[in-house]
Amino acid sequence: MLDRFTHFAARLSPWVVIAGLAYAAVFVEVDVSTEPMPQPFVEGRDLFFGGTAAGGRLWFVGQDGALLSMDETSRQWQRTQMQPVANLQAIAASDKGVLVAVGNGGRYWVRNGDGAWTTQVLPVGEVGNKLVDVAFFHGRFWIVGEMGALFRSDADGANWTRLRDADDVAFNRIRPGPRGSVWIAAEFGRLLHSEDDGATWLSQDLGEESLQSIAFAGDDGVVVGNRGQAFHTTDGGSRWQPVAPFTSEHLYDVLAQAGGWLTLGDRGVLFAGEGGTARWRALAPDGFGKAYHVRLVAAGDGNVAVGRGIGLLEADGNYRRWPEGVQP
């Protein structure tokens, strides 16, 4: 008799559990908290690729559509998720506060003042369609990227014109030079420049390693690239002389500053160039670390290093990671 009862109870128990769950679903009220879970302002997986200063704010762009901005007076930060999601490679600002950001897939974003961001796609191919850099100078925005992408717009970031046909070479950085010239540091040691606002271009080869960035201070100029290669000119780019090797790491950006130059790159390398001689000395500010950095942004109280994180290189040689309190 007991065995029959046990067998019956075993068969009935699943139905009892189901009935109990159904009762709870209908009659039991669950108190659900609607408070959002706190999200870190900067995540450990964040990578940043570009930055600019505009209207008292600093702007930084990076992986998966991340856009950070900081008010230089209040030090208050904001984070925006750009749509559609894509890696953002660079951002530039006009002298009237128009912002243009560029990224993968040939896509660019434009914001005029405090308005909303709008986005479009430039006519690039399906392969090698990353837009690598954007800059504002000579009253125009300029964009370069993979497969010889080279575009120019008006001061509002509109009416884009392609200036060269597609080419199997990546254009890495576009910057102004002396007397209205335009310069492009490119893959495979190629250096291009235009003297007529981009209508025609001259090209020269500086070795075989990819050139990553270029900067001028008057007729003095410096180009840096992979495997620590660097070149220096004192005559506005007519002749470029190789700089004696001072690192074997890739150098990704160079910036003209008072009294000389600043360059940075892979594995946390950071060097200062003295005067117009392009002699370089290593810098090792506390907390800078060994992570790579790809951009330098001039700020009000120093230069900002952008890469695996963001941080201020202060004039006194110290390094302060941004946002405040964020750990590497």
Mean pLDDT: 88
The ordered H/E elements are HEEEEEEEEEEEEEEEEEEEEEEEEEEEE
Task: Estimate percent helicity.
Answer: under 10%
- What is the distance, rounded to the nearest whole angstrom, between the alpha carbons of the first and last residues? 71 Å
What amount of the residues lies in strands?
Answer: over 45%
Strand order of the largest sheet: 1-2-3-4
Count the DSSP helices: 1
Poorly predicted parts: 16-39
Given the C-alpha coordinates, what overall shape results? globular
Q: Give a quick account of the main beta sheet: strands, pairing sense, barrel closure.
A: 4 strands, antiparallel
Rounded to the nearest angstrom, the radius of gyration is: 26 Å
Class from secondary-structure proportions: mainly beta
Number of strands: 28
Describe this structure in words.
The chain is mainly beta. It has one helix spanning 2-27, and strands at residues 48-54, 57-62, 66-71, 77-81, 88-93, 98-103, 107-112, 118-121, 131-137, 140-145, 150-152, 161-162, 171-176, 182-186, 190-194, 202-205, 211-217, 220-225, 230-233, 241-242, 251-257, 260-265, 270-274, 279-282, 293-299, 302-307, 309-314, 319-322. It has a 4-stranded antiparallel β-sheet, with no helix packed on it. Strands 5-6-7-8 form a 4-stranded antiparallel β-sheet, with no helix packed on it. It has a 4-stranded antiparallel β-sheet with strand order 9-10-11-12, with no helix packed on it. A hairpin with a 2-residue loop joins β9 (131-137) and β10 (140-145). The longest helix has 26 residues, at 2-27. The model is unreliable at 16-39 (pLDDT under 50).
